[in-house]
């Protein structure tokens, strides 16, 4: 198997993040307390990522990631290294159901662009250890996350539309940089769509002074413009999430309100979707899939708890989804990563790997090896 000949996503795939080992947690604490250098931290991260990649291979995955082991957050760490974006300490964290994150946020303070970025080197390391039989996959936040989460200086960009052109050009440069580093499987992670799934989310947009219909169109443009110049042999997928922090969630609701946009207008190669519980609704919105080259990755295995799902029930649900999208376009994965932030979900590493093996085994049963 070589990167140039593999079509992703795979029948049994995964979103990307994994629980941080204790050695990483301890090393990061020491680094922020000035007890070890950045080089020493990187050495420890490298050692753990090598172990992690090997565990992914042993579990039967065909795509391997660095597990986000170098990151505190799935999105802020990437966005704040774009030109014109900076981190700041917010008054409060992001509110999930029953729990709040650390107080951290980002803001746009100058013209947004992409010149150099530490995650290009992060990908290069992953690429160097992936081997010839596995595809290195890298994940970055969707451009929509800056539109949705970034505190925008009105002196720089008066409104979201003004930011769009510079933001998408920055992403085009980033995508090309990852490609030049060898990346052929890139994933955009995106929680912004979940705001459309419920009346509560719609109201939050309105409270921020945003028009939901305008934002929906803006989000489609941001994604499509950002990936418009990707090389033909580069696969770009999107993971659409309702929030994932310490096994809790942020929003509920099915895909129906924006199904025509997500399934009928986005020019990605595949969509990783949450379908692990009743909060996600049924498969009916998949009727809006209007392309025979769009892969739908069913997130039927939860990453939030360690209990393994009944295999027959998962196969039955795949069959239900196949009444809307052909089996040939369907894949299986956990609904999200295991650690969208460094805190991680509430399950053990052993349970995490059992989940991954569960995905691979069910996928092999359904589609073959």
Automatic annotation (TrEMBL):
Keywords recorded for this protein, A-Z: Methyltransferase, Transferase
The keyword Zinc appears for this protein: no
One GO BP annotation of this record: methylation
Pfam families assigned: Meth_synt_2 (PF01717)
Database matches in InterPro entries: Met_Synth_C/arc (IPR002629), UROD/MetE-like_sf (IPR038071)
Superkingdom of origin organism: Bacteria
Cobalamin-independent methionine synthase MetE C-terminal/archaeal domain residues: 15-364
Listed transmembrane segments: none
Keyword Protein biosynthesis on entry: no
One Gene Ontology molecular-function label: 5-methyltetrahydropteroyltriglutamate-homocysteine S-methyltransferase activity
EC number(s) reported in the record: 2.1.1.14
Top enzyme category: transferase
Protein name: 5-methyltetrahydropteroyltriglutamate--homocysteine S-methyltransferase
UniProt organism field: Halobacillus salinarum
Taxonomic placement: Bacteria, Bacillati, Bacillota, Bacilli, Bacillales
């Amino acid at each position: 198997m070589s990167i140039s000949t593999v079509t992703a996503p795979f029948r049994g795939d995964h979103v990307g993040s994994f629980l941080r080992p204790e050695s990483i947690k301890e090393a990061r604490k020491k680094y922020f307390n000035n007890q070890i250098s950045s080089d020493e931290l990187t050495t420890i991260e490298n050692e753990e990522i090598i172990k992690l990649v090997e565990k992914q291979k042993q579990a039967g995955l065909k795509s391997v990631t660095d597990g986000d082991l170098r990151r505190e957050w799935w999105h802020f760490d990437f966005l704040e290294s774009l030109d014109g974006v900076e981190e700041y300490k917010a008054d409060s964290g992001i509110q999930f159901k029953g729990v709040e994150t650390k107080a951290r946020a980002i803001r746009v303070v100058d013209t947004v662009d992409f010149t150099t970025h530490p995650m290009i080197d992060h990908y290069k390391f992953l690429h160097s250890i992936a081997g010839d039989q596995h595809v290195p996959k890298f994940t970055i936040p969707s451009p929509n996350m800056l539109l949705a989460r970034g505190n925008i200086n009105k002196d720089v960009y008066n409104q979201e539309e003004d930011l769009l052109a510079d933001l998408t050009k920055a992403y085009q440069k980033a995508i090309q940089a990852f490609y030049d580093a060898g990346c052929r499987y890139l994933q955009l992670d995106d929680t912004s769509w979940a705001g459309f799934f419920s009346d509560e989310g719609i109201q939050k947009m309105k409270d921020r002074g945003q028009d939901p219909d305008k934002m929906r169109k803006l989000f489609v443009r941001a994604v499509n413009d950002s990936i418009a110049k990707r090389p033909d042999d580069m696969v770009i997928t999107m993971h659409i999430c309702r929030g994932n922090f310490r096994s809790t969630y942020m929003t509920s609701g099915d895909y129906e309100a924006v199904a025509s946009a997500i399934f009928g207008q986005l020019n990605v190669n595949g969509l990783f979707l949450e379908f692990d519980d009743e909060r996600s609704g049924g498969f009916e919105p998949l009727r809006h899939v209007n392309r025979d080259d769009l892969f739908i990755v069913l997130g039927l295995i939860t990453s939030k708890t360690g209990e393994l799902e009944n295999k027959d029930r998962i196969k039955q649900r795949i069959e239900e989804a196949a009444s809307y999208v052909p089996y040939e376009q369907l894949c299986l994965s956990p609904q999200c990563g295991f650690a969208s932030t460094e805190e991680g979900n509430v399950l053990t590493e052993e349970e995490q790997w059992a989940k991954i093996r569960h995905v691979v085994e069910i996928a092999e049963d359904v589609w073959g090896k």
